[in-house]
């Protein structure tokens, strides 16, 4: 991943604050900010890590300690709806609000992990030969943290599994790689033995968020996010059952009402079986209000799921394709902070935070300013 930097104006846009606030808060936080070389004005140059450090400082300054911790799954029963792009951007924007974010890649294809700059296919030997840092490689995933993995190898402490692509105050990542697919086989064995594997992730989160296990202390995180694969399997069901909220991105370029109906049915089954279920939010992606098909789909979705349909949507944009070619390899919200797409992502994330009722009114007024 390249080294993206920002001037003060870019940082102000990312954090939704004034340029003067950026300068003042950076000084208050004691951040070590590089200055631009040359004979001209010594402009401050912020790294991505600097920006997240500043966001964390503002979170402490304005008391952005959530009223409650939340668990969120981003899931769509079909591929090609922009789910991983939505996940990576939401995770970054939440951290820019000063929240402590853990995002977990549940897809053995590891698209989210790759989007954060890691290479699940790279061996340590290949990394050394290519002159890449060993941290680029992925050795562990969620499976290595669960008791089920004892049948397949040793359970690892959280510190060995976690990745920090943007430093200590950016979103943290539990990555994925191809052997995560074995976890589903272990869950299937549990199902045959009547052990209710769909509850395994919920138990794991409860233990971690409570801080009872020193090797699995998740208590520092305000929000835990799952990026779930389209597969309709035990792992995905377990993440949904463990979650307070579920975001379902739908592609407005093609009809998605069946996918939302399927997810609503799954949530209904959970409600009837466990009396626990995530609250559903439907996020329109690839949105173009001028297209007749899109308008018809919005009518269908809002009629059937009026409370789930989000007020903010993400428009179709070439910007998403362009960032894939950038050397920086950053999610769009970081790579193109002044773009319309970034504005839309921030607005959608703000709506999610409000739906999750994580912050009190004064904290939202002082800290939740997403331009």
TrEMBL record:
InterPro entries: AAA_dom, DNA_Partitioning_ATPase, P-loop_NTPase
Pfam families, A to Z: AAA_31
Domain AAA, residue spans: 70-274
Keywords assigned: Plasmid
Full protein name: ParA family protein
